[in-house]
Amino acid sequence: MQVCTEAISLEATGFCDIRDITPEVERMLRERGLIEGSVLLFVGGSTGALTTIEFEPGAVADLRAAIERLLPQAIPYAHDARWGDGNGFSHVRAALLQADLEVPVAEGNLLLGTWQQIVFCDFDNRSRRRKIICQLRGRFD
Amino acid sequence: MQVCTEAISLEATGFCDIRDITPEVERMLRERGLIEGSVLLFVGGSTGALTTIEFEPGAVADLRAAIERLLPQAIPYAHDARWGDGNGFSHVRAALLQADLEVPVAEGNLLLGTWQQIVFCDFDNRSRRRKIICQLRGRFD
Amino acid sequence: MQVCTEAISLEATGFCDIRDITPEVERMLRERGLIEGSVLLFVGGSTGALTTIEFEPGAVADLRAAIERLLPQAIPYAHDARWGDGNGFSHVRAALLQADLEVPVAEGNLLLGTWQQIVFCDFDNRSRRRKIICQLRGRFD
Questions:
Q1: Model confidence, pTM
Q2: Is C79 in Cβ contact with B58 (below 8 Å)?
Q3: Domain B2-140 has CATH 2.60.120.460
């Protein structure tokens, strides 16, 4: 087994911007030749998270609505009172959805379901360039 | 270190069916002889999730009640409006609870607590056969 | 690649005690000499969880408030009705936030963001000594 640490870079707009990163992860797999093992994805930052979902506009809108309902943007946050960042909601959302996601790989493919994509959720309150760590581990060709 | 990718298959009834899969994971460990490392469990599909809980009827009922309270079945979902699947609630629940879980192994045992089991949560709106990826990684005997 | 399984021990007070364990994880990395790979952290027990957050009092208070709002302590739990433990809320919180967290490592460092710390959340209803499994995997020096 070997390990190889890469990163995916993307522009995201914040405010629960949900982005399909499956094609980038698949491209990295093929370029590096991982045959069997896994990909660890990790957001190095405290206002983003990773999960999987059927990436179609309906399910994505439903996820955004659920997050807003459970962890509203427009309530007072102690983080904002202390630092004036205005992104207290972003921190709580990221802590609950979490920074890490691991997807198994076999025969050179991500073992996702047919209607399942890997998504990055940008919860911050501004646009920015984001970097997602993408660590491949296992048996390479 | 080596890697070995297997799957657990089970019938689940959907609608927040919570199933203890610890015995199947333990049996796989013993059959394959993993001594030290970890098991990555992954639901290849967008209406199921994995977590750990004390698997007794009370705690399981509490988890089901919390999920229904936070992410109700009977509210409108954009996914249903677009596709008519009727399982919009399933997708949001699965995205929040997440498809991956990793449990460390040492001396041939899962490092779970005494009252902690690995559970598969089937959030779909129908019965079906489910497959959970079970990838063993580490030092085998 | 090699694997090495350790544990972090700490006293925690329960009731959503959120503790920064990043320094202990970093110390373990350096002692063991992990260069590239990852650290799998795991709570062996069903009333604790792991995540990352900007560990400053405001954001931590916001996370505690969100958890209490979403999964209140003072509602009836079936677990308590059956067992009289009084920690039904602890189990549901732990199942939703989850026992596992994995952080990638490269060039001997955790790939966390500048304002991102690893936290253990003790959701139980009493003080106790807690053990967090800390498994290092990858290329060591």
A1: 0.98
A2: yes
A3: yes
